[in-house]
Amino acid sequence: HAAWDGIILPVDHPWWDTHFPPNGWNCRCDAQPVNQRMIARRGWKETPDSDIPRAPIRDYVNRRTGEITRLEQGMD
In 3D, which of 53, 40, 38 has the Cα closest to residue 7? Predict the structure, then answer.
């Protein structure tokens, strides 16, 4: 998950639907809300979709329900 460090996206961006932490066993990631004023003051910019790192996709099988979900490697 280190590749996702520093990603800045709006709260309603679809990426958060699958990547909001914690997103794996023993995941210690966190998300911190920032507003436009904080972003401007620190000279940050929203991360373009093309710059969001993507890991290879794999099938994840939920052992309890048997449901199969397509997820990036490193997530469960």
Answer: 53
